[in-house]
Design brief:
alpha+beta, 5-stranded antiparallel beta sheet, 11 strands, globular
Length: 177
């Protein structure tokens, strides 16, 4: 096994990037959000999640967990299947206080797809986590054709066009009609 991740460009990103892009957001609030994003996600949010899920284990299932179980598909999604993205209200009912379902975040940029008909690109089994360059296993996460991220309000525009991760509970299998 080699150290250079033969066949993957991710470990090379620091080598070929030209440095940090200047953010388009110049407001004080925007700069503060960007500055605090990493420590918040690495430390504070991690601790808050541990406390929340410990509380949930003591008190039983929460309403969002029950709703998510009701929405779980009986037949798994396959490449080429058609799916309707559930409504904003249905998806919000499945999210915990961190706007996640089973660790998968529902981003504000994803609301534009609510209620739309989309084609399944694939059901994920593995993905490369860029934070630690490790291959991670996953279940119940779907990629939809041409449904991509173009950046976020906090970090600005991004030209990479990554696929958005969708939990299968947020999708409803439909016929091609």
């Amino acid at each position: 096994m080699t150290n250079d991740f033969d066949g993957c460009q991710l470990p090379c990103i620091p080598k070929f990037s030209l440095g940090y892009a200047q953010p388009t957001e110049r407001t004080v609030i925007g700069r503060v959000k960007r500055l605090l994003a990493a420590p918040w996600n690495r430390h504070v949010k991690k601790w808050l999640k541990q406390m929340y899920y410990t509380s949930v284990r003591w008190h039983g299932e929460s309403s969002h967990q029950i709703t998510a179980k009701e929405f779980a598909p009986t037949i798994p999604f396959q490449q080429g299947d058609w799916a309707r993205v559930r409504s904003r209200e249905e998806i919000l009912a499945t999210l915990d206080p961190f706007k996640e379902l089973k660790g998968c975040a529902f981003l504000p940029e994803m609301y534009q797809y609510c209620g739309t008909k989309q084609r399944v690109l694939r059901s994920m089994r593995h993905f490369m986590d860029e934070r630690d360059y490790k291959l991670k296993k996953v279940r119940g996460v779907i990629l939809l054709e041409n449904v991509i991220c173009n950046g976020t309000p906090t970090f600005g525009e991004c030209d990479r066009c990554c696929f958005l991760f969708w939990r299968e509970e947020w999708l409803e299998k439909i016929s091609e009609d």
